[in-house]
Amino acid sequence: MKVSGSYVVPVPQERAYALLQDPAILTKCMPGCEGLDLIGENEYAMRMKMVLASVSGLFAGKVKISEANPPASFRLIVEGNGKIGFMKGEGLLTLSPSGDGTNVQYEGDVHVGGTIANVGQRLLDTTARMLIKRFFEKLASEAGQSERRLAAD
Amino acid sequence: MIPQSFEYTAPQTLKEALALIEGGERKILAGGMSLIPLMKLRLAQPAEVVDLGRVPGLNYISETDGVVRIGAMSTHHAVETSPVLRAHCPLLAETAAMIGDPQVRNMGTMGGSIAHADPAADYPASLVALEARIRLVSAHSERTVEASEFFQDAFTTSLEPGEIVLEVEVPVEPSNEGSRYEKFAHPASGFAVVGVAARIRKSGDRIAMARIGVTGMGTHAFRDRAAEQVLESGGTIADAAAIVGAGEQPNSDLFASADYRLHLARIHAARALTAALSRAS
């Protein structure tokens, strides 16, 4: 399944890029993410608990950042496995200035399998888009807060 | 196909039910047409389930002062066959008649369906078109929200933990109004690939009011205000239907691509509006 879109984050490009590489920020922004532990260069082990409607599942997986080209682009790879299914997503994130903020454009591919994909096929696209939207909304609000903290210092 | 073991409670009063679900940890069973299949697949594994099926006073459909009130535990079958709804709000009865299959309609409830908020459920299209109000209660509070604010995202509503849907309020459709729900049903699941609810109120020869609710297109049902505007400012049904869903990012799955969904939405909007207009005359 292809996913693409763009969101504006209300901080300058260098700052937005740094936020997107920060495991603490990623943990807060990725829906259901309960923690990221560094296991290699730009590679993290991830624990995730997805709760959506009545469906809930624990996932264990990896987050990897590659092809880093700061502050313009990088590739984000997310993998997860759980009892109810597995997912693998890979996307190129491209950052460009947009007024006072930064436009983050993403383009990628998501594969979902297992029980969740067998019975939830009609909902995968909707759900993927909703989760990506939540990620960027949370990122925008975290970015706004970190800006205010910087301004206050 | 056998769910993980869970604790089952069937409270006998609303007060008891609200106290049980207060922490938001327990899962609410209101018909079980979505929850039970998910539990059997072990996609949902609630430790405790609270069944609202034996709580009295949640199953009614009545009309007072121009408002029809539908208790949350009214089954789709009850909504479909209610003489009150057939007389005062045929759109909702018609929508219920098109849900799933007879088994689902006999067991599934309006409250359960809207609280689950499947993005392809049928009710939401009609409820947003009707500008329905949804009453929610918890052990400590009671509030009413507009249908268009209730459905927030896929499987996401404005229900807070510990809250349940108490009833749905819809306005009585006046005699100069016509309405219609049209859907393209998925052949296996019966869910709306796309569903469009239309209401038209006439004043003389012109359209005084139009309401269009769309489900199945995006993460949640929405009112297409731009298309409504076209009709209210003298445009034709073809003009209005041609812009339904503009600016939305339609869902896409193996059965229907985004472009096909948009096409279906416009075709069904035209059909629903045409039928609504003829009924308004």
Describe the protein's architecture and organization.
The complex is a heterodimer of chains A (153) and B (281). Chain A has a single domain, classed as Alpha-D-Glucose-1,6-Bisphosphate, Chain A, domain 4, CATH 3.30.530. In chain A, 35% of the residues lie in helices and 51% in strands. Chain A has a 7-stranded antiparallel sheet. In chain A, strand 6 and strand 7 form a beta hairpin. In chain A, helix 2 crosses helix 3. Chain A is globular and about 50 Å long. Chain B is of the alpha+beta class and 281 residues long. Chain B is built from 12 helices and 14 strands. In chain B, the strands form 4 sheets. A 5-stranded antiparallel sheet of chain B has the order 4-5-10-6-7. A 4-stranded antiparallel sheet of chain B has the order 11-12-13-14, with helices on both faces. At the A-B interface, strand 4 and helix 3 of A face helix 2 of B.
Topology:
The complex is a heterodimer of chains A (153) and B (281).
Chain A: E1 2-9, H1 13-21, H2 23-29, E2 33-40, E3 43-52, E4 55-69, E5 73-82, E6 85-98, E7 101-113, H3 115-152
Chain B: E1 7-9, H1 14-20, E2 27-29, H2 35-40, E3 48-51, E4 61-64, E5 67-71, H3 76-81, H4 83-88, H5 90-97, H6 102-107, H7 110-116, H8 123-129, E6 133-137, E7 142-146, H9 147-150, E8 151-153, E9 156-157, E10 164-171, E11 177-185, E12 192-203, E13 206-215, E14 222-223, H10 225-232, H11 237-242, H12 258-280
Parallel strand pairs in B: 1-3, 2-3
Antiparallel strand pairs in B: 4-5, 5-10, 6-7, 6-10, 8-9, 11-12, 12-13, 13-14
Instruction: Strand order, main sheet of chain A: write it out.
Output: 1-7-6-5-4-3-2
Order of helices and strands of chain B: EHEHEEEHHHHHHEEHEEEEEEEHHH
**Number of helical stretches of at least 4 residues of chain B:** 12
Q: How many strands, what sense, and barrel or not for the largest sheet of chain B?
A: 5 strands, antiparallel
Give, in spatial order, the strands making up the sheet with the most strands of chain B.
Answer: 4-5-10-6-7
Per CATH, the architecture of the largest domain in chain B is 2-Layer Sandwich
